[in-house]
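Researcher: I'd like a structural prediction for the single chain below. Treat it as a standalone chain; there are no partners to consider.
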Amino acid sequence: MAQRQLQHRRRATNIIRRFIRGFMLRHAPPCPENALFIQFVRCAYLFRLRRLLPRAVLDKSWPPCPKGLQETSSLLRTLNRKNLVLRYRRTLSLARKEQLTQKLVASELFLGRKSSYPASVATPFADTRLPDALKSDFYTKFDAKMKPHHETVQYCVPVIKYDRHGYKTRHRLLVLTDAAIYLLDDKTLRLKERLPFREGGLQGIVMTALADEMIVVKLASTEINNNNAPLKGDLILSVPHTIEALTKMVMATRMANTTLPIEFVHDGTIRHNMSRGSQGQIEVSVGEQLRVAKTKTGLAVVSPDAM
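Model: Treating it as a single chain, here is the predicted structure.
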């Protein structure tokens, strides 16, 4: 019995000495003297890593690794990241996937260009902003009778339209389909304007880079008078939920295989076409509070800059 205990103690002593020697040579190239310690370090790292692996796709942390396992750690981190992303994508619903796609498009369009964009990131985009009081009449008057059957409604939002002459405000309902933009009377739902995507009616959007809701829809009218001047001018709109609405507008034009360029003005003048070839202007400036007012030369927009 005593001999057996002595053998156990000698064997334990040798193992401890090998570990101490291996620890002293842990940064040296692999050799018989540090092989046992390196094997122990690898096993201990893998067991610890299993307990500390990130469990969420947004968790980009990673446990530290021993000096000799940087390459292994990097490979495992890449594999874990791919696995988390794959699991996340498989659990996404169609509605959630569509929401993330819209947020990605909004980021491409407005990140670093529009002051109101950062505040919109955390707010999910709505499918529609149609008031509840109008839903019944909307589906019976517009969706069933006015809209062509091959078009699908993508989005609705109440807007304020400014007259091209005089800048009088009028409340409208902007309806976005996969083929055109409609402006309806906000009470009777009578059609005021239809702007198709594929017929060259839309040239682009001009808006400020500030925190206001003002946009100018640049139109290329084919209607001319005797002097070959366009009868219609550009649309001036104040659009609530600006980031949401324009993101859906751009995505709708892409569905129609067209493009809708957006130009941003930080501080200066936005010029818009009016009837009979004349032009108006909107003066844009930075201020502490949002204010839209008519001036002698046109329209003035004062908006805070949150960038």
